[in-house]
Amino acid sequence: MAEVFSFASLILGQLWKAIFENVVFWMVLALVAVQYRKIAKTRESMFGIRGNPVLKDTLTATLFGVIGGVAGSFVLVITGINLTGIGISYLWPLALLLMLINPRFLCFSYAGGIIALSNLLFGVPRIDIPQLMGLIAILHLVESLLISFSGHAGATPMFTKNPKGQLVGGFTLQKFWPLPIVAIAFLPGVTGFVLLPQMPDWWPVIKFGHGLVPGLQAVLIPFVAGLGYGDLALAHTPVEKSKMSARNLSVFSLILLVLALLASRYRILEYLAAVFAPLGHEAVIYLGQNTEMKGRPIFVPPMRGVRVLEAVPNAAAQAAGVRSGDVILAINGVAVSSKRDIETIIWGRPQTLEIEYVTYTRKKWQRAFIKLRPHQPLGIIAVPEGFETVYTEFGSQSLISRLIQKFSKQ
Questions:
Q1: Residue pair 287/356 in contact by the 8 Å Cβ criterion
Q2: Do residues 229 and 294 lie in contact, with contact meaning Cβ atoms separated by under 8 Å?
Q3: In angstroms, rounded to a whole number, what is the distance separating the alpha carbons of residues 93 and 95?
Q4: What separation in angstroms does the CA of 294 have from each of 157, 162, 165, 169, 375?
Q5: What string of pLDDT tens digits covers the 410 residues of the chain?
Q6: Among candidates 331, 217, 209, which has minimal Cα distance to 262?
Q7: What burial class does residue 141 get, using C-beta atoms within 10 Å of its C-beta: 0-12 exposed, 13-18 middle, 19+ buried?
Q8: Tally of CB atoms within 10 A around 70
Q9: Cα separations (Å) of 357 from 240, 301, 307, 352?
Q10: How many angstroms separate the CA atoms of 393 and 158, rounded?
């Protein structure tokens, strides 16, 4: 037991260094804050309302990122992922290059698969494919956990058109997490690094394909990464969508991790792992997009009443229990069937509102009483009614295509 606590304390100590002694962590944290500020401005420009404070979103993301980093660090060290043998120097440049083709290709699954196939077919670069696939699998597994617990938080409401041309309501899910993490590396000198303690005979779980180079010692290396998640919720609520995305991504991650483990023992399976990394990730994206675009939209006008797209955080309606997807039937005894009906009642500035609504989750009739302060808004965004002229169009236009389009116009 003492050895377990000693091992855990070493990893946690290195994580402390990654956070408080590494300027890169604070740079990533600043970039995360900038992204949340952009999301807040988008929300305010579209609907004139503010969500959670940027500082709160940033601190929450940091907390989840640190928790994810702790979990990921233990898995990386226990599986024995060796950063010095997996071609990290090739991954980032190739991932950035692929991003110019399509933004979603900024992912190690695609770059890692290409590098692994190049090694198998042409012998270059010289990398340990099972170890590389193991790193990609573990990072995606951590991402799936973060999506499951916080991917829905701060979802931004929007109007868009589905493939049928129908104007519908929905949410864009965008999350960013700074991820301090610890892995092992084999170096010729250990000055300034913490040696990896004696590991059990079964370690590493993912065997080193090229074996250990004599004279090198295993050390713990703290580093910092940034994880991001982007998704769309039209046929599901943000909570439902994030759970689905997390489940699909975790299945992909676990399959790739098993393939990496088997490939470290049976070299022929390296081909399967290398092909599955990009194709499996592409399948996850296709399944998620297809489910929302072709599924039955939730946030459309009901047969009776007004459906709520979002109950604004910290506003009157949310405090009274109204939630996204609920259908408001009447206010102060007056039936409502459009946004204008609600605005007309609110315009009279009644001190108390009696709201009758049906919940989305339980389909249960509810009554809530709200006392409005002077000039206090009700705090709901209703689903589009079909006549709105401002809506969001989604596309994955690459930087290259945007530049070509720009110069062709000139």
A1: no
A2: no
A3: 6
A4: 19, 8, 12, 14, 41
A5: 667 788 899 999 999 999 998 899 999 999 999 999 988 888 888 777 777 789 999 999 999 999 999 999 999 999 999 988 888 889 989 998 998 888 788 889 999 999 999 999 999 999 999 999 999 999 999 999 999 999 999 899 999 998 888 999 999 999 999 999 999 998 887 777 888 888 888 899 998 875 555 678 889 999 898 899 999 999 999 999 999 999 999 999 999 999 999 999 999 999 999 999 999 999 999 999 999 988 999 999 999 999 999 998 888 899 899 999 999 999 999 999 999 999 999 888 788 899 999 999 889 999 999 988 877 888 899 999 988 888 887 765 554 455 455 555 55
A6: 209
A7: buried
A8: 18
A9: 21, 14, 9, 16
A10: 10
In the block, tokens 């807040």 appear at 40
In terms of DSSP bridges, do strands 167-187 and 194-195 run parallel, antiparallel, or are they unpaired? unpaired
- CA-nearest of 339, 355, 347, 340 to 306 is 339
- Give Cβ neighbours of residue 366 (< 8 Å, ≥ 6 apart): 321, 356, 357, 358, 359
Instruction: Tell me if 138 sits within 8 A of 22, measured CB to CB.
Output: no
Domains of the chain: 2-294 (no CATH), 306-382 (2.30.42.10)
Let me know how long the chain is: 410
Q: How far apart are CA 130 and CA 269, in angstroms?
A: 9
Q: Which residue has the tokens 């939730």?
A: 298
Say how far apart CA 258 and CA 27 lie, in whole Å.
34
CA-closest candidate to residue 252, choices 227, 279, 290: 279
